[in-house]
Specification:
Order of helices and strands: HHHHEEHHHHHHHHEHEHEHEHEHEHHEHH
Structural class: alpha/beta
Largest sheet: 7 strands, mixed
Distance between the termini: 79 Å
Number of strands: 9
Strand content: 5-15%
Radius of gyration: 27 Å
Helix content: 40-55%
Shape: globular
Length: about 575
């Protein structure tokens, strides 16, 4: 399929040889023959001409929608129903299509990762991706949908989504394509991450034999176009968002082709073959060395981390102890007592869930001083009225409102800044976190002493979809391997930290997923507590799998860099003058 099988005999064979030259032979690394370049030239997939054409197409599409901006809203209006919203809000078909698009992305990226890792262990077969092809596929997804579309354009071009416009029941104004600094500030409409990810599947067209390209291109294009059209029907994107995303991804596919295929691809494959032989020759000694190092490092890891997790679904091996073995029962613990607990609840359009969640929080913390801060992240539902009713019922809840949606990370930070307590507990506003665990988390943070900076909830009995659980587990494994934060689940919204430490941590979009690593950077220990995961009662999640994965991958390496740049810490800081005055 991927250029390894010989063309069939007969007229088709003679035609293929007239394009590709003599029959291909497999090299030591399973790489492609140089004659593949001829076929790619014949298909128009090399040289600068395709990039020039795509650049002109991008400019043409942009100018067209700048000249006729009403086309965007007219197309979106076809899928809008007055007083009911866009069809995607309650359409099972669109939900299935969106899930299929996410799965298509996961399958493609997973195939690339397996091919790269497998090439280090075994020689690639004729029906599998070569290392160069796998790296090409992964690079297209990372640079096109991941970097250009999701990380740069969606965070830089301030364009509101169709469902957020005033004419469709929202509160924001329409802005045309390529207008910087519009009404939206984060996770904006321009351009479409899911449409870009769907279009990236066309990378496989370049990798198959020339005689298979037309049929595969038509099939994959139909699938990708269906996924992209579903985003328009759901009110998530405009037509121009989807078209611009497609052109950008197609340009990425063409631009990266000579970097990973052809002569450079053969060098990559040969490099993997050499590395594979080297690893296989050293495997017995490496395994013995790894066993020795793991035994020797047990004490060091137990000193650095503390906490309790269950053995079920643990991504980091054996569970950690709540009280490390190096501490004896006779040693006094430097426990502490928090005067007030501030519970921060980031929420966007969660009025129905808040009506149940906030009273649950108040009941859980009835025995100690507390406040509840609902950070309304630009909601356009009945959140203000819901919080007002809760206050009228005598619940100690405060309503902190963002003028426009800025994302969950910014909402958490707003709550931490406004918190009056000396301990902050975060909990998601969708009601999936059980507030009954908050007192136990605060108690564990108090008993663990001043050296403990975080108690992180670890979800058990996950109620999310299989796709979301799978993507979460893969992200957690990758994050743990790179950051060494010894936490199997950083996506749980239940976390407890001292307020002064929370405010010292470096802020960026996505920081709430990396709190364990950031706390360890401050030379504080972390503790874990298994918590129950519940079903969402009302509404649906605002983010797709690929949007979250693309940003998370970029954030991961950013946090890795932050940790490396913060290795030198001052240890205990003492105000000598103040100590002498007392």
């Amino acid at each position: 399929m991927f250029g390894r099988a010989e063309p069939p005999a007969g007229p088709l064979d003679r035609f293929a040889r007239s394009v590709d030259g003599p029959p291909r032979t497999n090299h030591a690394a399973g790489s492609k023959s140089p004659n593949r370049e001829t076929a790619l030239h014949a298909a128009g997939l090399t040289g600068r001409r395709p990039l020039v054409v795509l650049t002109g197409l991008l400019a043409l599409v942009s100018l067209f929608f700048l000249g006729f901006p009403g086309i965007d809203t007219s197309v979106s209006a076809l899928f809008y129903r007055p007083h009911l919203g866009f069809v995607g809000n309650d359409s099972l078909d669109l939900t299935i299509i969106r899930g299929f698009g996410n799965w298509m992305t996961i399958a493609a990226v997973g195939a690339g990762l397996l091919a790269v890792l497998g090439a280090l262990l075994v020689r690639t077969g004729r029906w599998s991706l070569a290392p160069s092809e796998a790296l090409y596929l992964l690079s297209v997804y990372a640079i096109g949908p991941g970097l250009i579309v999701n990380a740069i354009l969606k965070n830089a071009i301030g364009r509101a989504r169709p469902r957020e416009l005033t004419q469709f029941g929202g509160s924001l104004d329409f802005t045309p394509v390529w207008e910087w600094g519009g009404a939206c500030t984060r996770n904006c409409s321009f351009s479409s991450g899911e449409a870009a990810a769907a279009a990236a599947i066309l990378t496989f067209v370049v990798l198959v034999r020339r005689e298979d390209r037309l049929s595969l291109c038509l099939g994959l294009s139909a699938l990708a176009a269906t996924v992209s059209a579903a985003r328009i029907a759901a009110g998530g994107h405009f037509l121009s968002d989807v078209l611009v995303s497609w052109v950008i991804v197609l340009a990425t596919i063409i631009a990266l082709r000579p970097v990973f295929l052809g002569p450079r691809g053969r060098r990559i494959d040969e490099g993997f073959a050499k590395l594979r032989r080297r690893l296989r020759s050293r495997l017995p000694s490496a395994a013995a060395s790894l066993t020795f190092r793991s035994r020797a490092s047990n004490f060091r890891e137990s000193v650095r981390f503390s906490g309790a997790t269950g053995t079920t679904d643990c991504d980091i091996g054996a569970p950690m102890d709540a009280f490390p073995a190096f501490e004896t029962a006779t040693e006094p613990r430097n426990s502490r007592r928090f005067a007030m607990v501030s519970v921060v609840v980031p929420a966007k359009n969660e009025a129905d869930n808040l009506a149940i969640l906030v009273p649950e929080i108040a009941a859980a913390l009835a025995s100690r001083g507390h406040e509840i801060l609902v950070v309304d992240d630009g909601s356009n539902d009945g959140t203000p009225a819901a919080v007002a009713r809760l206050r009228a019922d005598g619940i100690a809840v405060r309503h902190i409102r963002h003028e426009r949606s800025a994302g969950q990370s910014r909402a958490v930070r707003t709550g931490v800044i406004h918190a009056a307590g000396d301990c902050v507990v975060t909990i998601d506003g969708d009601g999936q976190n059980d507030p009954a665990f908050i007192p136990a988390m605060v108690d564990l943070l108090e008993r663990s002493g001043n050296g403990c900076g975080l108690v992180a909830g670890q979800r058990t009995g996950r109620t999310d979809t299989f796709a979301k659980r799978l993507s979460s587990k893969a992200a957690n494994r990758l994050r743990t391997a790179i950051l060494k934060d010894a936490t199997r689940d950083t996506g749980c919204g239940l976390k407890a930290l001292p307020t002064e430490l929370f405010r010292r941590l470096p802020f960026f979009d996505g920081w709430h997923r990396y709190l364990p690593a950031l706390v360890l950077r401050e030379e504080r220990t972390i503790a874990h507590l298994d918590v129950k995961d519940r079903q969402r009662r009302f509404g649906s999640s605002n983010y797709g799998i690929f949007d979250r994965a693309a940003r998370g991958a970029l954030d991961l390496f950013g946090v890795w860099w932050i940790i490396r740049r913060g290795r030198r810490t001052p240890g205990e800081v003492v105000d000598v003058t103040a100590a002498k005055e007392h």
